[in-house]
Write a structure and sequence with these properties.
- There is one protein chain.
- It is built from 19 helices and 22 strands.
- By secondary structure, the protein is α/β, with parallel strands linked by helices.
- The chain has two domains: 355 residues, Ribokinase (UDP-N-acetylmuramoyl-L-alanine:D-glutamate ligase, 3-Layer(aba) Sandwich); 96 residues, Adenosine kinase, small domain (2-Layer Sandwich), CATH 3.30.1110.20.
- The strands form five sheets. A ten-stranded mixed sheet has the order 7-6-1-14-15-16-17-18-21-20, with helices on both faces. Strands 3-4-13-10-2-5 form a six-stranded mixed sheet.
- α7 links the parallel β6 and β7.
- The longest helix is centred in the C-terminal third of the chain and has 26 residues.
């Protein structure tokens, strides 16, 4: 398929979802909501800080031996440089709250916005005029202000006496709640810093996240959220859960990460008891510790319908499962290896769907149990990809109207690398599954077992990178809900 044909399909997907988005039922999002302090960093700025504080040797040592946690301020500098050098995006946790004050003093922030996968996905869904119930453990007024108010309906459950009421975020805010700011250091592909003898150049734009948060690391759920969601679960179509990447190996109170995972699984089971038809999706997120990765995968994956992850997370989780071959190729965005790796996880945990989103393309595998036609799945991830591209292009979380305007502008380009990987995957499916190569290339989806949908990304010079994975995920899940509801309605009428 040529670039212009992919663009035509993007238009078809957008119009199909746009026509049916009003059919969506309610959404539940969890588990982590916070505030992001965004700060664009440049190489000379980091050089200056390192040199003025005489930290070059210490930072270089940490750069080449990344601690993946923040105990001292040089760890912050090393984290920024490490992510710039590798082109990877990582999140390291701050162990000493005093470091957050140092970050605020040295860097400050360019702007504040909604943070946490749960918070970001809530806003993306609300901007599509959808009803969403997010989990928000701490809701001070500053946090409440980060929820969008110009669309949809964001509902925060609150107890009044023994009864549950659903309130708008600002109405539900509590003055005494904690404020959690996660520091997002963004860099572009022009980033270049010299630390003594070593030159650090960023191959691509990405970000480094420094986080101090003593509530979300326990995957806490607000009691009113638990009660409120159970009250309306029969009206819910999709649940999106994230935040497991914030788990710690140990906690001061003696609890274990598995204890906190079990609490979320108890809630999942309670939802399913009241509504067996709901579909639950979980985003994996980056976990540096292999034992934590295995605990999350082994405990969460069997209890959800769908998993989402990027190429690095896919490779890391396959490594945790004992795979050693093909991991470098996965991180290098080779679609056949990504397909094979994703299929391994899908089959091992008896999932109904798995989606891998990368900068150049996204692909998903679905089984008949998931209840969506492969063409509708293609349109769904295409819709999500367009939303992520619109965020990158404009720097703002998009509405459907903004996504349509951006697509019509012609300023988004179809990824050439994505199209090349589509060709490679088509050859693999023909050789190993007997699926006609040309048919997959023309349609973008394959009626195999599991079904495959593949979408090359729309690319632009990015004004924002943080939240792109959350945007593609939530928009794709919303599109799935719209198109499956349409299919059910059509079946009922016929």
């Amino acid at each position: 398929m040529l670039a212009k044909e992919w663009t035509k399909k993007y238009f078809q997907a957008l119009q199909e979802v746009k026509r049916n988005i009003g059919l969506c039922r309610m959404f539940i999002t969890g588990l982590n909501t916070n505030i992001d302090g965004l700060r664009h960093v440049r190489g000379p700025e980091i050089e200056k800080i390192v040199n003025e504080e005489k930290l070059a040797e210490e930072v270089l040592h940490k750069l080449n031996n990344p601690p993946r946690e923040i105990v001292t301020f040089p760890d912050v500098l090393a984290g920024i440089l490490y992510c710039a050098k590798t082109g990877d995006g990582e999140e390291w946790f701050i162990r000493d709250p005093r470091i957050t004050e140092m970050i605020k003093s040295v860097f400050g922030y360019d702007r504040l916005r909604m943070g946490g996968q749960c918070g970001i996905m809530t806003n993306v869904l609300a901007l599509m005029n959808l009803k969403v119930i997010p989990n928000v453990v701490e809701l001070p007024p500053l946090q409440a202000e980060q929820f969008i108010t110009e669309g949809g309906e964001i509902l925060i459950p609150r107890f009044e006496g023994e009864k549950i009421f659903f309130k708008k975020p600002l109405e539900a805010a509590r003055e005494g709640d904690k404020v959690f700011i996660h520091w997002i250091f963004e860099f572009d592909n022009q980033f270049k810093a010299r630390i003594n003898r070593e030159i650090v150049e960023a191959p691509v734009e990405n970000r480094f996240i420094a986080t101090y948060d003593d509530e979300n690391i326990k995957l806490k759920t607000d009691p009113a959220f638990r009660e409120g969601t159970l009250k309306v679960i029969h009206k819910v179509g999709k649940v999106i859960l994230s935040g497991y990447h914030m788990l710690q190996k140990s906690y001061p109170d003696g609890s274990k990460p598995e204890d906190h995972i079990r609490e979320t699984l108890d809630l999942i089971n309670s939802w399913r008891e009241k509504n067996p038809e709901i579909r639950i999706h979980s985003e994996i997120g980056f976990l540096a510790d292999p034992d934590l990765r295995k605990s999350v995968l082994d405990m969460v994956a069997p209890n959800v319908d769908s998993l989402g992850l990027n190429e690095d997370e896919l490779a890391d989780n396959l490594h945790t499962l004992g795979q050693r071959d093909g991991l470098a190729e996965i991180k290098a965005l080779e679609a056949p290896k990504i397909y094979t790796g994703a299929r391994k996880i899908l089959e091992k945990y008896h999932l109904s769907r798995i989606m891998v989103h990368t900068r150049e393309f996204s692909l998903s595998l679905t089984t008949p149990n998931y209840g969506i036609h492969p063409r509708d799945e293609l349109y769904s991830i295409m819709f999500g990809s367009l939303f992520a591209a619109t965020l990158a292009h404009t720097g703002n979380f998009p509405t459907i109207q903004a996504a349509e305007k951006t697509l019509k502008s012609g300023e988004l380009k179809v990824s050439m690398r994505g199209m090349a990987e589509h060709q490679k995957l088509a050859e693999l499916l023909e050789n190993e599954e007997g699926y006609p190569k040309q048919k997959f290339l023309e349609e973008g989806f394959a009626h195999t077992e599991p079904s495959v949908a593949f979408v090359p990304s729309k690319l632009t010079e990015p004004k924002a990178t943080v939240g792109m994975g959350d945007t593609i995920t939530s928009a794709a899940i919303a599109a799935e809900e719209a198109l499956t509801c349409k299919a059910k309605n059509t079946k009922t009428i016929n």
